[in-house]
Fold these 3 entries.
Entry 1:
Amino acid sequence: MMHETSKTIALRPHHGLCLHFFIGLGYSERFVQRMTWLQKELERNPLIELVSGTDVLCDACPNTQGESCSDEKRFSAYDAALLKMTALQTGRVICWQQFKERMQERVFDEGRFHEICPDCQWHEFCHK
Ligand code: SF4
């Protein structure tokens, strides 16, 4: 499925990390296709809006029920941890490159990635 490209891409904050580590694995074929599509879109450095709740990726995730995630509490905690670490807020519009640099400086360079999502099922693939 092709996803409509809007000017600003809605992204829940912790998905910035997932995209950083993405190697073609995911919850379903449709989800992997969406991740692949989004990775490509982000190469042109669009504006992203940091959102709470579901985003452009969740729309293709089998864990999404209607408008919400079946494990919202856990993923909201990941979002909150990343926002705190990067000193960003929900609703902030920022270009992808800037967001990536902020994650690099304040999360990866500081060795703090493991604090954000240690109980995620994909952690062993991302925590390298
Ligand atoms: S461990 Fe899970 S939440 Fe964390 S970056 Fe990897 S896929 Fe995303």
Entry 2:
Amino acid sequence: MKAFKGCVNRECKAYKTRVSYKEKFEYCPHCGEKLEYVCANCWKVLEQNDQRLCVGCSVEKEEKKEQKKEKVINAGKAIVGVAPVIWKQKDKIVDFTKKAVNVIKKK
Ligand SMILES: [Zn+2]
Ligand SMILES: [Zn+2]
């Protein structure tokens, strides 16, 4: 994804509120400062405009993605771990249901 432009004048409203501008904008409409390609996350000036995030932020993002994947795998393992326990208990569960039915019948 392509980077967007942003005002890097720290005194400017557009900087403080992190307004992003399209490619065709050259100068900030608020302060007249020249716009730079900035990182969508940390607002650092980018040297290239072919990425939305600076190197630091894209690494961070990748790491978060990896962590998420791991969590999903762990959750899967937990379910697999629980299934056999339920299976072993199934007779008891059936028993219990029968008893419950009997109780209802007696009434
Ligand atoms: Zn500005
Ligand atoms: Zn960044």
Entry 3:
Amino acid sequence: MTANETRDCLDPWLNGFIQYNGDVVPCCYIRVVWGNVHRNTAHEIFESEPARELRRRLLSGELEGACVFCPFRPMTTIATLRARVEKIFDASAEHPVEDPR
Ligand code: SF4
């Protein structure tokens, strides 16, 4: 892994895995809980400190834990991942998702 590389992973922006008890984790490889669907809104879960930290690490290439050895997402450049994330937010601006609460 070089200094300009990171995982080509959009999961922390797009997905959350809901466990049997309502806990939400970022993917099937990481067990850090972002929140719980019985107690938190989707906004609270995706803006939780561990969610923001995982996204920061992916965007900076400061990978740790499961992301270092992830078998699901290939390596890419930081610039490429940043461009993909920006494209998501451009698309969501055209089709905003409203919080039903
Ligand atoms: S472990 Fe893999 S799938 Fe999970 S957030 Fe990290 S890179 Fe993405």
